[in-house]
Amino acid sequence: MLGTYLKECLYFTANRLSRVITKMAEDEFAVSGLSPTSGFLLMAVYEKEGISQKELGDILHLQPSTVTRLIEKLTVKGLLYNRVEGRMSFIYATDKGKALDDVINQCWNNLRDRYSAILGQQEGDELTLHLYQVSDQLEHKD
User: Do residues 97 and 79 lie in contact, with contact meaning Cβ atoms separated by under 8 Å?
Assistant: First the structure.
């Protein structure tokens, strides 16, 4: 009976998926010396140098305090720096941070290849898009 409840519970199933994909992502990003989330934050900075902390939070769907902690860690590692203008903080990659661009992209590609090998490329892409859409729906329920 409990097995049926767990299979039919979005909360349990989503958390199980999160644990499995997090382990895969951590394995693939280990070579970079970064967490997957830190890697994706750097990717966002590469795309838009001088991005605001608020914009990073919006893009990555993270709370401001989480973004601040990630930026602080990456700053200590010498990968990012920020410039404060008034009440706004703008984030830039250092040369050392920029040097990780290819490594981070390879980590991301390896992760995608890894789950695509199991699920199939089309199913992996469709599942990702569907989960993104469902997350948006649940997040903006008001």
Answer: yes
